[in-house]
Design goal:
about 25% strand, alpha/beta, binds S-adenosylmethionine, about 40% helix, single chain, globular
């Protein structure tokens, strides 16, 4: 996809990328396709689709929070780096931490970091609920896309968010239903829905929903529980 066309799409979310950022996105795209032939990273491989369904979608967070004002962001279950790597490229000011439990994907992310010379980027090979046990109230913003149902995701991630910071869940379908099923988790974790935003991906008009939670108080020490308990008895 041409830079000008991508920038036209991005103007909807108040972003304009530079030549350097476009080149970095292209290098990232090429690495994604190369590595994807060896390990499973994404089922979306056609260039225009990657730019819209992965890159634009990752940046759509700027619609619900001004990323220029964020200092620290942690992306839980980042996989091949969505949304974390894309945000790092376009908002290099943010200190970003990527967390994923799958070692093969972590190796890919380390290669991307090296090839693109990305600084202030920490890559953590861990389950989120294990990482969150000792890394509490650390990040201005925590994001997660396509990792777990909202009630589970909240427990996995919420301890990482600073007081008065935000957790942003990126959902493609059934956001309302997921919110309804998360009322207990929201209460137990002292979370509050700050806002929600419906997005249409450009050109293909597929709907997405961003759900932004604010953290009102420190997360009780016993959350997150071990994954066995979380999955057996979700909040
Ligand atoms: N966020 C990426 C995206 O939107 O393309 C990846 C989505 S992929 C379907 C889910 C990712 O979450 C996988 O890479 C998996 O290893 C990771 N994951 C699942 N549960 C996790 C957990 N409890 N802690 C850390 N990573 C987790």
């Amino acid at each position: 996809m041409e830079k000008n066309i991508f920038n036209e799409y991005l103007s909807d979310i108040n972003i304009e990328i530079t030549d350097k950022q476009y080149e970095q996105l292209m290098t990232y795209y090429n690495l994604l396709i190369n590595w994807n032939s060896k390990i499973n990273l994404t089922s979306i491989t056609e260039k225009e689709s990657v730019f819209i369904k992965h890159f634009y979608d990752s940046l759509s967070i700027n619609k619900i929070i001004d990323l220029n004002k964020v200092e620290t962001l942690c992306d839980i279950g980042t996989g091949a780096g969505f949304p974390g790597i894309v945000i790092k490229i376009v908002f290099p000011n943010i200190h970003i931490t990527l967390v994923d439990s799958l070692t093969k994907r972590i190796k890919f992310l380390e290669d991307v970091k090296e090839q693109l010379n990305l600084e202030n980027l920490d890559i953590i090979n861990s389950r989120a609920e294990v990482y969150a046990k000792d890394t509490r109230e650390k990040y201005d913003v925590v994001t997660s896309r396509a990792v777990a149902k909202l009630n589970v995701l909240l427990e996995l991630s919420f301890a990482l968010v600073k007081e008065n910071g935000y957790f942003i869940a990126m959902k493609s379908t059934n956001a309302e239903e997921e919110i309804k099923n998360s009322l207990n988790a929201i209460k137990k974790l002292d979370a509050k829905i700050d806002s929600t935003k419906n997005i249409l991906l450009p050109k293909i008009n597929e709907p997405r929903t961003l759900i932004k939670f604010i953290k009102l108080k420190k997360t009780p020490k016993h959350y997150p529980r071990e994954f066995k308990q979380i999955s057996k008895n979700p909040l």
